[in-house]
Write a structure and sequence with these properties.
Two copies of one chain form a homodimer. In chain A, the strands form three sheets. Chain A has a five-stranded antiparallel beta sheet. A three-stranded antiparallel beta sheet of chain A has the order 7-6-9, with helices on one face. Chain A is mainly β. The first copy, chain A, has two helices and ten strands; from the N terminus they run αββββββββββα. The first copy, chain A, has a single domain, classed as Jelly Rolls (Sandwich), CATH 2.60.120. Chain A is about 15% helix and about 45% strand. Chains A and B meet through strand 5 and strand 10 of A and strand 5 and strand 10 of B.
């Protein structure tokens, strides 16, 4: 469990339960806002996922998203592509309009900094079957 | 020296000596690029400063800079303001047009993620006198 404690006690706070976005997630996530400033075009937050937790498929319109992985083990998948296994230090750039999801692996907590521009469109949840396939394909 | 080892062995690589920007720094810095993508309007890098190292006064025009402190102890100062002492987990937002500098304290290594938009204008170095005053005022 050492890795899980590392995620929960990282450099940036884990923050409270992510109630505001809970309807767009499967499982429990936590969100600590880091930057929400009308004078800059990106928001920054620290997102933490319990094992098995992932967000729904979504798209950033007129924007982008950058993930900086800070702890644990996670998955990232773009529509039609195999999933990527993510570990601390990994970086993901999601381009404007690309349908994708991210989250923890089934047995590990996971945390990333998210740097986000534009307007998100939230889509369907990642089914248990597709989630299991993603993890299988990424390892 | 435990803290210094922590900075040098952080989540994101320290990268090579920052030769490209050496003329805009006093002392030795290191730079690991993380995102340089023409499809997004920000660049992201991990910057590490040896003890006493700081960058010159500079301005981000038509943009901004966000610092996410990842290790050690550092300083941030905007023109005309007292310096801030920075520790892991701290966040700094520099607005468009604001003259500022950042760097390590004199006895500690320091690292931060920099998320940068716009065009930098590099100005004069932070003199030894002003650097000492900044650190004194921040503690």
């Amino acid at each position: 469990m050492a890795k899980n404690e590392t995620v929960k006690n990282g450099i940036f706070p884990m923050g409270p339960k992510n109630d505001a976005y809970a309807k767009f997630f499967t499982g429990q996530s936590y969100l600590q806002g880091l930057v929400a400033d009308p004078a800059v075009n990106v928001g920054v937050g620290n997102v933490t996922f319990e094992p098995g937790c992932r967000n729904n498929w979504h798209i950033h319109h007129d924007g982008f998203q950058i993930l900086l992985v800070t702890g644990g083990e996670g998955l990232y998948q773009e529509d039609g592509q195999p999933a990527r296994l993510l570990k601390p230090g990994d970086v993901v750039v999601t381009h404007d309009g690309v349908k994708h999801w991210h989250g923890a692996t089934k047995d590990s907590w996971f945390s990333h900094i998210a740097i986000t521009a534009g307007t998100p469109e939230w889509l369907e949840a990642v089914s248990d079957t597709d989630y299991a396939k993603a993890e299988e394909g990424a390892k």
